[in-house]
Each structure stands twice: as structure tokens, then as C-alpha cells.
Amino acid sequence: MKLAYWMYTGPAHIGTLRVASSFKNVHAIMHAPLGDDYFNVMRSMLERERNFTPVTASIVDRHVLAQGSQEKVVDNITRKDQELTPDLIVLTPTCTSSILQEDLHNFVERAQMDCQGDILLADVNHYRVNELQAGDRTLEQIVRFYLQKSQKKGELPQEKTPNPSVNIIGISTLGFHNQHDCKELKKLMGDLGIQINLVIPEGASVHELKNLPQAWFNLIPYREIGLMTANYLEAEFGIPYVDITPMGVVNTANCINRIQQVINRLGGNVDYQEFIEEQTLYISQAAWFSRSIDCQNLTGKKAVVFGDNTHAAAMTKILAREMGIHVVWAGTYCKHDSEWFREQVSNYCDEIIVTDDHTEIGNAIARVEPSAIFGTQMERHVGKRLNIPCGVIAAPVHIQDFPVGYKPFMGYEGTNQLVDLVYNSFTLGMEDHLLEIFGGHDTKEVITKGISATSDLNWTKDGLAELNKIPGFVRGKVKRNTEKFARERGLKEINLEVLYAAKETVGV
């Protein structure tokens, strides 16, 4: 375990709480010390929730350490059951409370004796998995629990819906543009004549889960949360799933084609080719934009991509395949699913990086000096320090990346949003020309910053004056290369002579 000020994925209990609080009338109880209970604030702020987040912290304090947690946890569960009458209460420990090694299964069994609703202990190893893996596992656990419960009672519907129908699995609170994507996917399914059977977990009741097997197929828009549930439903009930993320013109068409194959294999008779052609040519602006002079100005521009598997892989393909942009490297922090990522992007970029170390990503960006970055909020911070524009495409994100207006990344409207994001993330045309002439509006302090917040080298007055004569859009690169030149030679001070020597040697 190491201390870090930035993490791409949160601890396991955050994933469990995201899924539990996405369901309707489900309450989560977090067994945690003070400091681990920040989820409520984070969710209410980022999602701009009008109601209280349905999560309670059962605090581990000095009394618990002395006497044990059982009575406190059981009391919290039974109290919330009486006050809120939820359909389900999910109990989750955190990494720190797991150190106590208490028998939480026994706590749940004790509490269930006095509660009207169902009680579940999140079956997640908090030491081995991260937020995304835990969310995926918790969703599958809840679905499995209620389907098996319905089976025992003989309440599972035996027939499929008369017309083609779909379950959309993986839409959750705190997901990157999840609510906007969900609206666009519902519209897309409606245009295809496909009935929405269920959307889980966001907004669904656990009592509706018994209807999952009625759907003809499952759609998994995000690999991070939903795949375990889809695999369980396929193995147990024979429900096929489509896991092609409909981002970009090509992948959206590929997703619809796969849906067509699945429906026709199950006895349907649909042909979506005319729909795909009409949407591609007249609804989405992406295909037109890729042939315009504006997009031709992007051809050969260098970009880097980093994020979760779903968004980083999709964005890499869009940039390289649909817009002619040179992806120098593409990366993901989803180390547990890295083989899939490598297989998806290997033909669309020069290099693949799989890491959850933000410093490694920052250094990789500084090394290649791309024209634009497409990544998380951390890469946006790095881009600001390097004076490189960044489009945010994946969590973790700032509140500004939870837009109030409609901004899907999926479907044909999503392609328009992505075109705008890409085009506005590059410095082009007259802006580029003016930056070269006037150096932009940057101050000296910002202009001379590199990837590090501080420098171990001292710039003399004449060296700094010469550096500030260099056009602003390349000044950061010149500064970093000069400092690298000085460090390699053991120099502690950079004056005019060192700057000229670096220029002659490495062409800074």
C-alpha cells in the first residue's frame, strides 16, 4: 500500500456504494472510520442531488475498537429498516474497517431477524479490487440474489417479450456522462423499434430484477460495470449480450449491426442498414466533418489518450480511424482488463501504456509533446502545466464534467459532441498564428512552468529574459529540454550561454 494524492479509481467501497445508491429504495450502510465517509458529499455535489444520498456510515470509533462492532452495526441496520423501510440494505466495510476482521456475515444474519427488508453484505475483497471491479461485482451479486429468490418462489416470468427488447446494464450514479448516454441509448433503441425492458442499476427497483430474463438481449455500454452481470445472465438464462460501445460513427454502426444479428438469430426479422446510412449521412455531423477542410487541418496532429478502458479505447479509434489524427500513445488505468484494451487499440496507436501511476502518465505526456491530450481530470492538470490543451473523456473528473445540459458521448448525437470536443481541444489556424506572433496572454510565471511544480535549477536573469523572447506555444518545451540538457551535465544554473549550448546540441 502506498500513499498517493491522486487515484484514478477509488477504493472498493465506493464502487459498492455507487451501485447500491443507484437503485430505487435501496440503502447502503458503510462500516468505516471517520474519513472514509466522504461518498455522501461527493455524490450530492457531483450529481447535484436534490435528495439525501441513501448511505449511512456506521462509524468505527474507540468504543468499537474496545468492545467490537456487532451491536452498533446491527442497531444501525435495524434503525434504518424501521425509519426508511427500504427494499434492501447493503452493508459494506472499507479497507480500514476490514482490518478488524469482524464476522460481518454474522452481523447481517442477526439484523435480518429483526428487519422487514432484505439485507446483503457486499461480497467484495477490499484489499484486492478497486472501485470499478467492486461496482461490477456488487451489481452482479444483487441481480443474482433477487433472481435466485424469485426462482425459489416460482415468480420468474417464463416468456420473452413479444417484440425485441433490451436490458441496458451498467448505468450508475457518478458514472461519466451516464445519464446523458442513457437518454441517447433509449432514443436509439426506440428508433430501432426495440423495447426497453430494464435499465439497471440507475432508477430500477430490486423487485423489477425478476423481469430481466424477459429481454431478448442485454446491452453493456461500459466494460467497467455490467460485464459480470451480463455473463451471469447469459450463463444462467441464455440471454446474449452486446458489449460494443456505440461511440463514434463506426462503433455505433458496429453496435447496431451486432444487435441486428442477435435479434435475427433469436427469430426476429430486422434490417437496420438504411437507418445506419441515414443517421450517418444526415443526423451525425461526424462523417461530414471528417471530409471537411477543418478536419483536414487536424490530419497528422499528434494526440495522446488515457482513461478507463471503455472511453480510452473508443476515443483512440475515433481519433485515428475517423479523423486521421496520429495517436502517439493510448493508455488505460484498468490494469485488471488490460488484455482487452491492448487488443482493441493495438492497430490505432504507436504505443500502449497500462498504469495507474499518474506521474508516469505525466512524464509520458511531457516526453512526446502532443498537440492535444484526451484523458481524465489529472491529464487536464498536466496539460495546463505543459501548456497543452486537454479534452476530458473519462473519470475521474471535476464537477464541470458533470454538465447540466444534454451532452451524451454515445449514439449519433454523441458523435456530434465528440467532434466538438476534439476540434476545440486543438490550437489551430489563426489562434496558432497569433500565439506564435504575440505569445498569447500567458504570464512569465505560468509560461516557464514544466511538468514539475518546482525546479531544482536556477535561471539567471539573462537566461530567463532570452527564454521569454521565445513564442509562448513552444516556450515550455524549450524550457524543459534546456533543463534536461543542464541536468545531464551537472549544471545548477542556466544562463544565456547554457541556453544557446542546449539549442545547438539538442535543437531546443
List the helices and strands and how they pair.
Elements: H1 12-20, E1 26-32, H2 39-46, E2 55-59, H3 62-67, H4 70-84, E3 88-93, H5 104-112, E4 118-121, H6 131-153, E5 165-171, H7 178-191, E6 195-201, E7 217-219, H8 227-237, E8 241-242, H9 249-265, H10 273-283, H11 286-290, H12 293-296, E9 302-307, H13 309-322, E10 326-332, H14 338-345, E11 351-354, H15 358-368, E12 372-375, H16 377-386, E13 390-392, H17 411-424, H18 429-438, H19 444-447, E14 458-459, H20 461-467, H21 472-488, E15 493-494, H22 496-506
Parallel strand pairs: 1-2, 1-3, 3-4, 5-6, 5-7, 7-8, 9-10, 9-12, 10-11, 12-13, 14-15
Helix pairs in contact: 1-6, 4-5, 6-8, 7-17, 13-14, 15-16, 20-22, 21-22
Q: Could you tell me the number of beta strands?
A: 15
Largest sheet: 5 strands, parallel
What's the mean pLDDT score?
88
Major sheet: order of its strands? 11-10-9-12-13
Give the N-terminus to C-terminus distance in angstroms: 40 Å
* Morphology: flat
Roughly how much helix do the residues carry, as a percent range? 40-55%
